[in-house]
Amino acid sequence: MVNLTIKEKFLLEGEKYQQQLAIDKYNDYALQAQDSTLKNLFSNLVKIEEKHLGMIDDMLQGKIPEINKKDLHPYYKNNSITSNDYINIDNITLTSIYDNNSYEDGDKIICFDALTTEELLHSTSSASSLEFEKSEFYNVLKYIIDEKSENLKYINDYMSKKGMYNNIIYF
């Protein structure tokens, strides 16, 4: 059992709050998305964020969560990016970015929002990890940060393959 300082509790409570916001947002986005691959991407992100939330809850209770490094990022297990021209996601192949520029503007908007959400989560986790540098929790936060990087890559790859960076949406 790890005893937390007031500052460490405060930081972990902030992380917990941000994780819950992301879970709620990604659940909504899984329902809003028009593209079935994007719906699946958000469903996967919910599972990952729920895992992170559970780890943070454990830390708030003074427990050291187990880290399974074999599965750094669960949905990459059966999905592979085999070239710069296409990506396979749950048996659906997105082909060349030049051939696959069809997407709904709403999907693009929620993808950009998801990117900024993951960037925020990555940033807050990184900042919090500095406070835990000499703690048993440092490796747990580092693991969460690594998964945030994978989330960013996954969203970015989806957007690139769909050609979402080729056109601008004005809000």
Blueprint of the fold:
Blueprint: H1 6-32, H2 36-60, E1 87-89, E2 92-94, H3 105-131, H4 138-161
Antiparallel strand pairs: 1-2
Structure characterization notes:
By secondary structure, the protein is mainly alpha-helical. Strands 1-2 form a two-stranded antiparallel sheet. The protein contains four helices and two strands. The longest helix is centred in the first third of the chain and has 27 residues. The radius of gyration is 17 Å and the shape is elongated.
Biggest sheet character: 2 strands, antiparallel
Shape: elongated
- Structural class per helix/strand content? mainly alpha
Radius of gyration: 17 Å
Count of separate DSSP helical elements: 4
How do the strands line up in the largest sheet? 1-2
Total beta-strand segments? 2
Low-confidence stretches: 80-86, 95-99
| First-last Cα distance | 49 Å
Query: How much of the polypeptide forms β-strand, as a percent range?
Result: under 5%
Helix content: 55-70%
**What is the helix/strand order?**
HHEEHH
Mean pLDDT: 84
